[in-house]
Every structure is written in structure tokens, then in C-alpha cells.
Specification:
repeat; 3% strand; TPR repeat; 964 residues; TPR-like_helical_dom_sf; mainly alpha
């Protein structure tokens, strides 16, 4: 098969069929495409209309599937004769090709390709059948684990035998437990396992296999890791090239005719993207899978690139779901741009404003209250569903209670109803409208904020998709703002309340977990039964447009909160239910029960020797051999084994071995930021700078708000003398970690190297602000460098002229000799090129003034300040600074220390130059008196010192000048 033709197939647009008849009459292809989009929109009314416009038997069968799917009858979709016929052909192809030993995804993909090729005239109906069957299995899984209503095992028992094709042993019976265990293994990706307590994971496994064929058109399944190129070189969706996935550089695409038929589907990639997000959220780990992310990006590159009918909200929904995908996979920006695009596509207008109002019952004075004004492009005038109306009109009489007439008779007899009985008597409608005071009479908050402006309190009737977009904007507020009161206020009631009271948050989370079920039990009230009567298609209509948590995710969050609050026993029980064995071991250790933890791990190993359990045993026994076993059992796919193994090697000071283990770990799971960070840190220790740069670059690409990673990256570039790169890295680091004085010092150095003098002076001010934390002396060398660069940009040229103006230039190396701990590759004291600017001089004057007001006893700072005034022509101020420099040097006992004597003699000599330049008798007299005192004390112990003798000669010259 020619490679060029393959590329053409994978880059072709969807085929659009047009009718030869009148333009108002839809062709068969257009009818199916409209039905396909109606399924995405859960618009079963439109599908019923389309059924009246075709007499084609195949189209009618496809429309029947679409109607069942849009009505929420997902099990009936699978039971439909067209799906059953496809499944029989699929099973025959698997047996004929001998594919039972392959991964289920590869097996089904190759078998479906065989089925399509065997019946080329029927490819379009087959494509729709596979698509709708995959969507039905996916929605079944989501219904059972996310939204409800729950279904009894008996109602799904007839679906299990047909799933036998997934098993690699034809002799094994397709029971619920067998398929459950098989699916948990099959759904492992990048070495990470799914939650085991989920309901019917086999439905998600089947959906992934079918939709992988439809949306990705490749025989390469998700067990083969994707390259991390999309991390290092993110590709905009507009430029994302549709190509099949590869293994070891070899593409394995489908037959071109089959691929063309699948690409003609309008929503194949959309449903595939939804299944990928559901797969990611099923994994126990909170770290995103690079393999699933790459596939998701491929699918949504098609979804957001399509054009949709202008009279629908499909474009907005596509952008919204793409933004949520970025949020789920923790991609930089987390979908903010896509949420904005969704808002623009839907026509939603949002404005955050304020209005005066009262929030509490006893509040007298109105204060400013935050208000969100949101308006849909078209107001939502949709009527409530028939089921909702029926439920609202239903009272508890349908469940054995009294009728309204009986209630009236009871009231007339003088037997008043209790508050709870009255709620039941009023039915579900009243139950929905329960007030805050009824729920908590002691609260001080009003039911709603009492605004002075009535318009501020009015609620707009938003479209449902606009409501979902507003929820996504709450995610954006939380993702891109600090955790403070304003952020929480913008999101109203949200998980942000967990910051206010951890105990309250745990109680709320426990209530959510308890209510996250739709099974009617004998202990549930009639109201609960009515509440759970919402049909599946209404519950799932927008479930992919919001981040709605499944039960196992809620339980994990609850267990994490128990653990953070020190409720270890409750956390342990929940983690055991979730089979999160890492956390179970941690809880046993916190409860000081390591023996029980080890016994549990060995018991689980006897049942299922998984890589995770081997790692847990290694954690408990400190035996690295168990990590090696885990790595081998996983066939080099379980990155956690290598990460922990690497940490153990680091603790044993085997740095080179630790680096090798972390390199293996990031190769398998390249989206785990901590592993990259650890690899970068270890590489810095061994001075393996290229590896360190690569590691920290991956960290900041995955987590752009990691200030420490940015700082380390900047330090490496600085060590490599790549000053521009270092400057940019430190700029990003300081956005996150502004209180680290080490970063500010490095930033000053980089700013001077790249001649960003304004940034350098700003950083010096920040270091002065942080003096209480670091207690380090003022960097007088950096101040001297700033003075040389800004005030004396032509200092080298002046020196070349013979050095006639000695007072205007200073040999900085002589004045400030390098300390013993300075590196050889330290900063030179003079910038090779710099621009003198009046604004810079003003800023530098403020910096020097502030510095000397804070640090008054540092003679070197006063010398730099004097040198600055010399360059600016401020002779009097320069003389004053030199006098303060000499006074700072005259500390107690200075005349007993040779170094102090030499420094003071040099400073006094510079001071004499300033006095002599003044030339007045008063100046000469003051200078003579000062020098006489310095020389007199210096000669007591250091009369033969060259600096003392030199100062004595200056004194004689001064006396001669004064005498004349």
C-alpha cells in the first residue's frame, strides 16, 4: 500500500453527500449525519422527525439505534438486531483470524476491519452501527458509575455472553466477575491500574475498543506508550496532523477504504475523546497518562476543527469538552482559552460586577456584594420534561401515604402535622423549595442577598450549555487564581468551602458519597424514590460537559480528607474499599501497625501478584529486590517501581544508579512531574547539565507554576553562561517564589549580564525588603557594577586616554578584591557595554540612598555612593560620602589591625583628593586636621607600612598647600 495514499486518507475531510432531488429534501447521507449530531445533543425529537423522511431499511435501522441512544435506552441499543448481527460477524472474524491471544483492542480492530472489507457496499451502515454501539457501552458505564439510575445485574445479564469475544480463553465463561477482572487488566495504561470498585468496567473496555477503531483508525492499542514529543513540542490543534499511531516508528493504519468510511462520521472522534477522558478518570493515579492525552488531543483536533449547524450549540459544546479535557489531563492553561471560545460560540455574556446589599438578618448597613450577570444569546424557554412534570405533581399518596383530601380532614379534626410530615404531604415540589431557615433555623444568613438594586437580584434563564460554561469558568477561576477569599467568593458554593472548615467539608463529602447511589432500598423514603426517577437520557445529556465525579472519585477525595485530618482509621477503611494499597500501607504505618500492613500485602500477593503489591512489600521491608520484581512482572511498564527504586538508590548515595532508574521511569510515564524534578536534581549533583536542562524543562512544561523548577533551570543556564535563557527562567521562577532571596540574587546577576539594569535595580530593592529573612550583607560589588554600567559607560575609553581623571575612575578589582569563596567564573566588575540613561541614574540614586539609609556602617557602600556622585558631578555629596566611608572604617580598635589601618589610609587618601579639589582654606584645614589624627594613630604600630607612609606624604603636601 503506497504511503502517499495513506497520508491522503488520514488527512481527508469527511465526505458530504448531497441529494440529486430538490434542495429541501435531505439525502440519506444527510439524514444520518443529522441524526448523528442529534445524538450528541440528546435531541430524540429531531431523530423522530428524521425517521419520517426516509424509507430506506438500512437507514431506518441506523435511526432506530440513534433514537434508542438519545432516549437513554443503552442496553436496548446493544440488543438491537443490527448490533447483534455485527457482533456475530465480529466473533466469526476473530475465530477465523485466530486473534484471541491479542489485546482486546487490537483483536476487535483487526476483526472489524475484516468485517468491513468483506462487505464494502455496507460500510456506511456498519460505521454507524459500530459508533452507536460504542457510545451505548460508554453511556452504560457512565450511567452505572456517574449519574444513575442504577441497574440490577439481572437487567444486564443477557449482555454478558456477547462480550465473550474480549476474553483470550474461549473455555472461560463470560460471567460478571470474569469480565470484571479481565477489564481491570485490559484498561491498564502506562503501568497504572483502574479503580476496582467501579461497576461493569467491561462496558468501558468494550466502548474503548469500538471507539478506538472508529476515532483513531489504528491497530496500535493503548498499551503501547506514546512519545513525549507533545510535552516538549506542543502542537496547536489547528496544525495537528491526523496520522495513525505508531509502534517503534512503524505505522499500522487500517485499510484506506475502511478509514475513509470512518472519517465520514461526524462524531466518531468526539465519542472517542469522551471515552478517553472517562478512561483517564478511572485510573487510580492522579497523574495524567501521556498515552491517553496524545490520543485525546488527536481526537479533539478533529472535533473542534469541524463546522456545525449554526442553529445548535454543538460548536460551544465541542470547545467546552476540549477545555475540560485539558483540565482533566492537567495541561498548561487547563482549558482557559477553550472555555472562552465556548462562551463566544454560545453567545453567552458574563460580567462580574458589584451591588450594595445585605447578607445577614441583622445587618443594618448595606455593603458591596459581588454579582455575576450572565445572559444567554437566546433565553431558555424550554418546557420541563414530561417526567419532571409528573414527578412534581406526584405526592406520597402514590407510595401508600394519605391523599390531599385525607390530609384536609385530618387538619379539620385538629391533629396538626409535624414539619417533616408536612414536607412529605406537600410532595416533591415543596421538597425542592425548602428554605435555609427550614433547614437551619439558627443560621443568620438571609435566603438570598438583599440587594438595594432589584435588577441585581434578578436571575436570567440561561441555556443549559451556558450553565455548563459557567461551571467551567469556576474551574478556571480555581486553576488560575490563588486560594484566597476573593477566589472562593467568585465560585459561590463549591469545593472551595473545604478551606473554611475541614470538618464541615468532610461531612459534606460524606453526605455526597452516601447520596451517590440510585438504588431504591427499603430504608429510603418515598421522596428519595421520586427523586431517583429521573430518566437516564436527562441525567447524561450534559454529563460530558461538566466535571461530574464518579462514586469512586468521591470516595478517594473523602479518604484523602480523612487522612489530612488525622482520621486514619476511617481513611484506612475507605482506601481498602478502593484497593488503593499504597495509601493503605501508609495508613497502617501512621497507625503504628507495620506488621498488619505487611501481612495484608503478602495476603494480596498470594491472591494477585501485581506490580503494585510488590512495590508495597518493598516499601515495608526496605528490600529493593521487590522493586526489581515489580518492574519485571509489569514487563517494564510500571513506572512507580523505578521511581521508588531510584529514591532508595539515592538514599544509599548511589547517584548514578538512581539517575538510571529515574530515566527508565520518565520514559514509561513522562507526565509524572516529580520524577522529572528528581532526575534534574540528581543530574545537577553529577554536573550532567544537558540531562538536568531536559528534566527541568519537562517539569516547567508540565507544571508552569513550579517556581523551584524554574529556579533550578535558571541556575543551570547561569552555570553554562547562557545568560539570556537564565534571565527568562528566573523571571518565571520569581512569579511563583518571590520570597526566595537566592533567586533574587541570581536574577540580579543575570539582569546585569544581559544589560537589564532596571530589572537589576528592582531586584536589589527586593533583596533589601527580604533582609529580615536572609541577613546577608548588601552586595556592594553589584552596586559598583551598576554604577560603572550606568554612570561610567565610557570608562574604558577614558582609561585608554591615560587615566588623567583619577578621581572619576576606580580600579574595582583593587578596591574590592575577590573573596576566597568567590568562583573563578564569577562576574566581572564592569559591563563591557552599557547605556547611560537619565532614568537609570535617577533609579540608581534612589537605590543607593535607600541602601545607605538601611546600612549605615558599610564603608564599601559609601565608597560606591561617592563614586556615583563623582560621575554625576555632585562634588559636595561625593566628599560627604567619602567622609562617612572613613568614619565607618574607624571602628573600635582599628589602629591595632593592619588591614583596617591600610583600608582607612586608602580611604583617607581618596578623601584628601576631594578636599584638595575643593581648594578652600576651610577644606584644606579640615582635611589636614583629619589626616593628622589618622597618621598619628597609625604610626604607633604600623609606622613602616607603605599605606601609612603614603598618607603621611599626602599630609605634608597638604600642609605645604595650606601654608601657601
Amino acid at each position: 500500500m503506497d504511503s502517499d495514499s495513506d497520508d491522503d486518507v488520514f488527512n481527508m475531510d469527511a465526505v458530504v453527500l448531497t441529494a440529486d432531488e430538490d434542495e429541501d429534501v435531505l439525502s440519506e447521507g444527510d439524514i444520518l449525519k443529522e441524526a448523528e449530531l442529534a445524538v450528541i445533543d440528546s435531541n430524540y425529537v429531531r431523530i423522530e422527525q428524521l425517521q419520517t423522511q426516509t424509507a430506506n431499511a438500512r437507514s431506518h435501522a441506523t435511526l432506530d439505534l440513534a433514537l434508542l441512544l438519545s432516549r437513554g435506552e443503552y442496553a436496548d441499543v446493544v440488543r438491537h438486531e443490527s448490533v447483534q448481527s455485527l457482533w456475530k460477524s465480529l466473533g466469526d472474524a476473530i475465530q477465523r483470524l485466530g486473534l484471541t491471544t491479542k489485546h482486546p483492542c487490537t483483536c476487535i480492530t483487526q476483526a472489524l476491519e475484516e468485517v468491513f472489507v468483506a462487505d464494502p457496499s455496507n460500510m456506511q451502515p456498519l460505521s454507524y452501527t459500530v459508533l452507536f454501539a460504542g457510545a451505548a457501552f460508554l453511556n452504560l458505564f457512565v450511567q452505572l458509575n456517574y449519574t444513575g439510575p442504577a441497574m440490577e445485574d439481572a437487567a444486564l445479564a443477557d449482555l454478558l455472553p456477547m462480550l465473550h469475544v474480549l476474553l483470550d480463553d474461549s473455555a472461560v465463561e463470560a460471567t460478571k466477575s470474569t469480565l470484571h477482572s479481565h477489564a481491570l487488566v485490559s484498561l491498564q495504561v502506562d503501568g497504572e491500574s483502574p479503580f476496582s470498585i467501579c461497576e461493569y468496567p467491561v462496558f468501558l473496555e468494550t466502548a474503548r475498543c469500538l471507539l478506538h477503531f472508529v476515532g483513531l483508525q489504528s491497530k496500535v492499542n493503548w498499551t503501547h506508550s506514546e512519545s513525549d514529543d507533545h510535552i516538549t513540542k506542543p502542537t496547536p490543534l489547528a496544525n495537528f496532523l491526523r496520522r495513525p499511531r505508531t509502534v517503534h516508528g512503524m505505522a499500522r493504519p487500517l485499510n484506506p477504504q475502511v478509514t475513509a468510511a470512518l472519517l465520514a462520521l461526524s462524531t466518531g472522534a468526539w465519542w472517542t475523546g469522551r471515552s478517553l477522558m472517562t478512561h483517564q478518570r478511572l485510573l487510580i493515579t492522579k497523574e495524567p497518562s501521556n498515552t491517553l492525552w496524545t490520543e485525546t488531543q488527536l481526537c479533539f483536533s478533529v472535533v473542534v476543527g469541524r463546522s456545525y449547524p449554526s442553529d445548535t450549540y454543538l460548536s460551544a459544546r465541542a470547545q467546552l469538552e476540549w477545555g475540560l479535557a485539558q483540565h482533566v489531563f492537567e495541561i498548561h492553561g487547563k482549558g482557559r482559552a477553550s472555555f472562552d471560545d465556548a462562551m463566544a460560540a454560545s453567545g453567552l455574556t458574563v460580567q462580574m460586577s458589584g451591588s450594595m446589599g445585605k447578607r445577614t438578618k441583622y445587618q443594618v448597613k448595606s455593603v458591596a456584594q459581588m454579582v455575576l450577570h450572565a445572559t444567554s444569546r437566546v433565553e431558555n424557554v424550554a418546557a420541563a420534561s414530561a417526567s419532571a412534570l409528573a414527578e412534581a405533581q406526584t405526592t406520597h399518596v402514590d407510595f401508600g401515604g394519605q391523599s390531599s383530601g385525607e390530609m384536609e380532614e385530618a387538619n379539620e379534626e385538629g391533629d396538626p402535622l409535624s414539619f417533616e410530615d408536612q414536607l412529605v404531604a406537600d410532595g416533591k415540589a415543596a421538597y425542592r423549595n425548602i428554605t435555609r431557615d427550614q433547614a437551619d433555623p439558627d443560621n443568620i444568613l438571609l435566603e438570598h442577598v438583599a440587594f438595594e438594586d432589584g435588577a441585581a437580584a434578578s436571575d436570567s434563564n440561561l441555556q443549559v450549555i451556558d450553565q455548563a460554561i459557567l461551571l467551567s469558568m469556576c474551574l478556571d477561576v480555581k486553576n488560575n487564581n490563588p486560594a484566597d477569599g476573593l477566589t472562593s467568593e467568585q465560585m459561590v458554593r463549591d469545593p472551595c468551602e473545604t478551606q473554611r472548615s475541614r470538618e464541615r467539608a468532610i461531612l459534606q463529602m460524606q453526605a455526597l458519597v452516601d447520596q451517590h447511589t440510585t438504588r431504591l432500598t427499603i430504608t429510603q423514603t418515598s421522596l428519595k424514590a421520586i427523586q431517583d426517577a429521573a430518566p437516564a437520557h436527562e441525567r447524561l445529556a450534559y454529563v460530558y460537559s461538566v466535571i461530574f465525579p464518579p462514586r469512586y472519585e468521591l470516595k478517594r477525595d473523602l479518604a484523602d480528607r480523612y487522612l489530612s485530618c488525622g482520621v486514619f482509621a476511617s481513611a484506612l477503611a475507605t482506601f481498602q474499599e478502593l484497593e488503593m494499597w499504597d495509601e493503605v500501607v501508609q495508613c497502617f504505618q501512621l497507625l503504628d501497625q507495620p506488621k498488619r500492613a505487611e501481612a495484608l500485602v503478602r495476603e494480596r500477593l498470594a491472591v494477585a501478584p501485581t506490580p503494585l503489591m510488590w512495590c508495597c512489600l518493598g516499601d515495608l521491608t526496605e528490600d529493593v529486590a521487590h522493586y526489581e520484581t515489580a518492574w519485571e512482572v509489569s514487563k517494564h511498564r510500571f513506572a512507580r517501581a523505578k521511581r521508588t527504586w531510584g529514591r532508595k538508590m539515592f538514599e544509599q548515595h548511589k547517584i548514578d544508579e538512581a539517575i538510571g532508574h529515574f530515566q527508565d521511569a520518565v520514559r514509561v510515564a513522562p507526565m509524572y512531574t516529580q520524577a522529572w524534578f528528581f532526575l534534574g536534581s540528581l543530574s545537577m549533583r553529577t554536573e550532567d547539565w544537558p540531562t538536568a536542562v531536559q528534566a527541568f524543562t519537562r517539569v516547567v512544561q508540565l507544571s508552569p507554576d513550579d517556581g523551584e523548577a524554574w529556579g533550578n533551570l535558571g541556575s543551570i543556564h547561569l552555570r553554562l553562561r547562557q545568560h539570556n535563557e537564565a534571565f527568562n527562567a528566573f523571571q518565571e521562577a520569581l512569579k511563583q517564589r518571590r520570597t526566595l532571596w537566592q533567586m533574587w540574587e541570581n536574577f540580579v546577576l543575570c539582569a546585569m549580564q544581559v544589560h537589564k539594569f532596571g530589572d537589576a535595580m528592582y531586584a536589589m530593592h527586593q533583596l533589601l525588603d527580604l533582609r529580615d529573612k536572609h541577613k546577608r550583607p548588601v552586595d556592594h560589588e553589584m552596586l559598583a557594577w551598576l554604577v560603572e554600567a550606568i554612570v561610567y559607560p565610557q570608562a574604558d575609553a577614558i582609561a585608554d586616554d591615560g587615566g588623567e581623571n583619577e578621581a572619576a575612575t576606580i580600579d574595582m578589582n583593587a578596591v574590592y578584591p575577590l573573596d576566597d569563596d568567590d568562583n573563578d567564573d564569577g562576574v566581572v566588575t564592569r559591563a563591557p557595554t552599557a547605556a547611560s540613561d537619565a532614568n537609570y541614574k535617577t533609579q540608581l540614586a534612589k537605590l543607593l540612598g535607600r541602601t545607605t539609609s538601611i546600612v549605615t556602617n558599610n564603608p564599601k557602600v559609601w565608597q560606591v555612593y561617592a563614586h556615583f556622585h563623582d560621575g554625576c558631578g555632585h562634588k559636595a555629596k561625593a566628599l560627604e560620602c567619602r567622609l562617612k566611608e572613613c568614619r565607618a572604617l574607624q571602628k573600635a580598635g582599628w589602629d591595632k589591625n593592619q588591614q583596617d589601618v591600610e583600608l582607612l589610609c586608602r580611604a583617607a587618601k581618596r578623601l584628601s583628593v576631594s578636599y584638595i579639589e575643593d581648594g578652600s582654606k576651610a577644606s584644606l584645614h579640615a582635611c589636614r586636621l583629619y589626616l593628622r589624627g589618622v597618621v598619628k594613630k597609625s604610626q604607633v604600630d604600623f609606622a613602616d607600612n607603605p599605606d601609612v607612609q603614603d598618607l603621611q606624604r599626602v599630609l605634608h603636601q597638604l600642609e605645604t598647600l595650606e601654608a601657601n
